[in-house]
Amino acid sequence: MMMDSENRVIINCGGIRHESYKTTLKKIPATRLSRLTEALANYDPVLNEFFFDRHPGVFAQILNYYRTGKLHYPTDVCGPLFEEELEYWGLDSNQVEPCCWMTYTQHRDTQETLAVLDRLDLDTDKPSDEDLAKKFGYEDDYYSGTVSWWMRLKPKIWSTFDEPYSSSSAKGIGIVSVFFICTSILTFCLKTHPDMRVPVIHNLTVKTSHNTTAWTLDKYGTNAHDAFFYVECVCNAWFTLELFIRFISCPDMFDFVRSSVNIIDLIATLSFYIDLGLAHLASHLENADVLEFFSIIRILRLFKLTRHSSGLKILLQTFRASAKELMLLVFFLVLGIIIFASLVYYAERIAPNPDNDFNSIPLGLWWALVTMTTVGYGDMVPKTYLGMFVGAICALGGVLTVALPVPVIVSNFEMYYSHTQARAKLPKKRRRVVNVDVSEARKNRTKLSMPKLGMGVKLGHGLGPHGLGGGDVAVEPQPGMGIFAMMATIGTVPSVLPPYINAIPAMLTVPGEGERDNLKQERKTGSGQMESDSHPVCDTDSQCVRQSPATVRQKSDHPETVCVTTNCQTDIRI
User: Fold this and answer.
1) How far apart are alpha carbons 214 and 208 in whole angstroms?
2) 407 Cβ neighbours under 8 A, 6+ residues apart
3) Closest by alpha carbon to 107, among 91, 123, 96?
4) Residues 6+ positions from 151 with CB-CB distance below 8 Å
5) Element housing 263 (H / E)
6) Mean pLDDT of 80-106
7) What is the pLDDT of residues 476-513, one digit of tens each?
């Protein structure tokens, strides 16, 4: 029984006590629990336990890992917290069991999603001046107070033209930009309507039956109405001005040029001026209308609306994130199209079929594509029983092929959209835990001239009903205080102290200059006790000097009472 009790160890983690064997904790070497000794600061000799202020729920699974060799993930904690606890205890997160791996790694997918949403810049809150200084690269000038007028004006211009929800003026600019985009697209579409075009007529000289010449009017083409040209001029003037202002006020010109939306905007704007020049230079060519095909790129201006709609940004990001699934869909479609086009070609040739529509496999590719996508134009149909059977299999295979990747794309969109909605409702200014710097706290305590125990001040000096300071000022407990100093600040020092405690003030009194010299001489000559048997006390300079037990016995009837001071943190050990 004695050996069994000595082998057991008690661990208090977050207020919950756990008991295990030391041999169990040695099963996983090079970890925090495998190196537990009574010399650690976490050990409490009174309660005979090790205390760790960590998450108790995670520690239960960690201790179970030592017992069973299987690490499971608790579902009531967040993934990053679990990783932090494993890192603290010196364990590898890759040791999580396969049954919990999918649940455990969900937080990594969530973190990737949040990082993507940060890059999409969906926040509508106004940034602070410090954030703007970091974004536009004049942080040093901001802290030194030498920000020029252009540096102050540049972020305002950028937010007005690029962030529609940053201010009321930005909303007005955004409305104007959307109006010109819609007008440009509408003009591009309406000018192709026959009722919106003007016929081009020229005089044509012909010979009559009486060997005479006459002239007639001949319509050899149509042009768009001149009104569309003026509307496009106004729209492109706005697009040019907007692009120029955004370029000179952007935070980073290199990132601005690499942006796909800005590239589309630049090409669409240049296409108007190129068409305008070619209309005068190449108007005499017979195939001059072919040049108008390149103006179709102006339709891509619709992607500029992504700046004004977070939903469009999420939709584009969904397709970008689902690229693997889309490539898989295209691969299976191409594979099925080739297979079923070949099958239907030979199936229609086996049986007599004078009205065969499948004269070649390339023609069958079109039929297979239309059938697998469930469109079914009906321009090409199999007429034999074997060909109909192949057509039925092709339709069923197309439904399964198209339907399989769709749920993945839908789930990606739902994930991005739900996180975006959650971010919109999340308050920006959240209360965070302030890390207290002990050194700074000690400096502040020194500035307050607060008495410290063990520094030449008697224990009862300066105590009032409300703590230190004679009752006038209530001082809060500070880092670096001993236990009785903390009790004194909150007014919980017992009125009657034990006899050995009453002897401490006299023992803690700073020795005089002569006594210091005697102690130094005693250490040099080797008189009295050995230095290894002496105990440290503090002088007024917060430096430890050695005092032999003999000196302690002269000042106190309780030689076992010693003052231990480390870096001005005084504690009383009995």
Assistant:
1) 7
2) none
3) 96
4) 136, 138, 141
5) helix 260-281
6) 90
7) 454 444 444 445 545 544 444 444 444 444 444 444 44
How far is the C-alpha of 81 from the C-alpha of 56, rounded, in Å?
12
Let me know: does 59 contact 51? Beta carbons within 8 Å. no
**pLDDT tens digits along 23-57:** 999 999 999 999 998 888 889 999 999 999 999 99
Task: State the residue for tokens 């999420």.
Answer: 314
| C-alpha dist (Å) from residue 384 to 166, 336, 357, 379, 387 | 66, 21, 11, 16, 5
Q: Judge contact between 352 and 387, C-beta under 8 A.
A: no
Q: 65: which 2 tokens? A: 């890992």
DSSP characters over 84-118? HHHHHHT--GGGB-HHHHHHHTHHHHHHHHHHHHH
Contact by Cβ (8 Å): 387, 344: yes
Q: What is the DSSP letter of 493?
A: -
Per-residue confidence at 111, pLDDT binned at 50, 70, 90? confident
Ramachandran sector of residue 90 (left: φ over 0; alpha: ψ -120 to 50; beta: rest): left
Token pair for 324:
């693997």
Q: Tell me: pLDDT of 365 over 60.
A: yes
Band of the pLDDT at 440, cuts 50, 70, 90? very low
Q: What are phi and psi of 138, to 5 degrees?
A: -125, 40
% of the chain beyond a pLDDT of 90: 25
DSSP 293: G
CA–centroid distance for 63 within its chain: 32
Decide: 52 and 12 in contact? Cβ < 8 Å: yes
Q: How far are the Cα atoms of 38, 39, 51, 412, 417 from residue 45, in angstroms, in the given order?
A: 8, 10, 11, 55, 55
Between CA 148 and CA 152 the distance in angstroms is 6
